[in-house]
Amino acid sequence: MPYKNREELLENKRKYYRENKKQILHQMHKKYAENKDEIKQNRKEYYLKNKDRISEKRKQAWRNPDSAARKHRNKTKGKIFEKRLLEVYHITLSQYEGLLRKQCNKCICGTVFGKENRKFPCIDHDHSCCPNRSNSCGKCIRGLLCRKCNLIIGIIEKNPYLLEYIKRGQNV
User: Fold this and answer.
1) Stated pTM of the model
2) How many domains does the chain have?
């Protein structure tokens, strides 16, 4: 049955997909599993041939506030952050916000956190508390730091002799 216009054809395809979604996804997963290496190679070749066009298309999508990519990111951004807080640091969003309030939205060095100055807090925790875990237990969180302070403390924790060196005030 020929279609009168493109919209009718697309609507029919969407309807078919909705009605047969499980079977279609099963076939796709099966085909991918059987031809995984070939599919990956084809995708890589296509990307390398069309790198500039793909990059420009992505940039245009992010510049457009009505794009599907931008809408999806805005919709899921908070959820992803909450999930990361729970999985990695074992704290809730309200506990995180409590830390921000307790520190008056500032790092110990005085840097103010915020989108305006693109300074986002890092969660500082004692790595020696949970040595066998890649994540924090949630009980060893010391506070929120700016990126620079977090890096400095991380380096000093791994190399305590640096702190002694600074305290002694030796010149090289």
Assistant:
1) 0.56
2) 2
The C-alpha R_g of the chain, in whole angstroms, comes to 25
Q: For residues 95 and 169, state if they share a domain.
A: yes
d(CA 48, CA 50): 6
The pair of three-digit structure tokens given for residue 135, joined into one six-digit string? 């994540």
**CB atoms closer than 10 angstroms to residue 111:** 17
pLDDT tens figures, 16-66: 999 999 999 999 999 999 999 999 999 999 999 999 999 998 888 888 888
Q: How far apart are CA 145 and CA 108, in angstroms?
A: 7
Tell me the one-letter amino acid at 118: R
Alpha helices by DSSP H, listed for the chain, are 6-19, 21-34, 36-49, 51-63, 68-84, 93-102, 147-158, 160-168
Q: Do 98 and 40 have their domain in common? A: no
CA distance 59 to 64: 9
Q: How far apart are CA 63 and CA 95, in angstroms?
A: 34
Domain, as residue range, for 106: 90-172
Distance, CA of 85 to CA of 67 (rounded, Å): 28
Would you put residue 119 in left (φ > 0), alpha (ψ -120 to 50) or beta?
Answer: beta
The CA distance from 49 to 151, in Å, is 39
